[in-house]
Amino acid sequence: MKIKNNRYEVTFCTKGGEIESFTDLETGIQYMWQGHPDYWTGKNPGLFPLVGNTLDGTYEINGKTYSMKNHGLIRYATLTCVKEDEKEVVMALDSDEETKKKYPFDFHYEVAYTLEDNQLTIAYRITNTGTEEMPFTFGLHPGFNCPLCEGESFEDYTLRFDHTEKMKQLIFDGEKKKPYALADVELDHIPCSYDLIEKYLTLIYKGAKSSHLTLSGPKGYGVKISITGYPYLAIWTAKRGAPFICLEPWYGHADFSEVKEDFYHREGTMILSPSKTFTTAYTIQVF
Predict the structure, then answer these.
(1) What share of the chain is helix, strand, coil (3-state, %, to 5)?
(2) pTM to 2 decimals?
(3) Can you tell me the distance from the alpha carbon of 62 to that of 137, in angstroms, rounded to the nearest whole number?
């Protein structure tokens, strides 16, 4: 599956309904992380119905215990292509007996991709097709090659907001023995720094007002993603030397310590009524 114009080509795979590649046909630059077992085999999964996981990987619904892998169901599923033409690719997944062993709700999940010039728009529709209220959260996890060009390094790159941000940073205990703390931060850019990411494990910010976050390097190439409407923004790479960075808009987050609330009331959980549809989107611009 692919969408192509006179400058860019984007390809997709049914595994997870993910972007497989985003290529500048003129320069040959590949913007999307391709996955590698030495660092992270993932690429750009959709996170549904969990971002991260519960503290012990299990949760309870109506007295029965369930469990899902990290980041939920979609990244491990094979979606069905329901539309493919020169302008749009749409893939979907419907709940079945296998998904309900892990997440006991009926849903229809759909992701649609459209390309215009240098911008890919990714839109999501999640419908509650069951008869009871459905608790879920949602997030994105796109990985981008960093550096993008030969002769550059990861730490040559910078992340910039549209303007100076006054946000809260979630600082959590890697051993998950105590609740996370919120620290006030004021900044307009973040260096791509292995030291910084190692210090906090994942950079997680709450309350950004900018419409976009831009990754750029010394030769002028980069990526701009839209972050409007997402309460949280995470920035992550696997380890020192990993040649990629993930820029992740989230609606919720993992458990960073013991959570006393039930599955319906975890921070960031949304409740979707029967027959209702949740929609969200974001864009990836390359340059």
Answers:
(1) 10, 50, 45
(2) 0.96
(3) 19
Residue 286 tokens read as 């390359």
Nearest residue to 27 (alpha-carbon basis) of 149, 156, 153, 157: 149
Distance, in Å, from the CA atom of 265 to the CA atom of 271, rounded to the nearest integer, reads 9
Per DSSP, the three-state class of 195 is: helix
The whole-number pLDDT of residue 86 equals 86
- Residue 277 belongs to what H/E stretch? strand 277-286
pLDDT the model gives residue 114: 98
β 203-206/158-171 pair status: antiparallel
d(CA 88, CA 50): 27
Rounded to an integer, what distance in angstroms lies between the CA atom of residue 103 and that of residue 236? 27
Q: For 34-76, how does the pLDDT look when each residue is reduced to its tens digit (9 = 90+)?
A: 999 999 999 999 999 999 999 999 999 999 999 999 999 999 9
Strands (E), 5-79: 8-13, 18-24, 46-47, 58-61, 64-67
> What single letter denotes the amino acid at residue 238?
A
Contact in structure between 283 and 118 (CB atoms under 8 Å): no
Q: What are the helix and strand counts (H, E) for the chain?
A: 2, 22
Q: What is the Cα–Cα distance from 267 to 284, expressed in whole angstroms?
A: 27
Q: 268 near 103, Cβ under 8 Å?
A: no
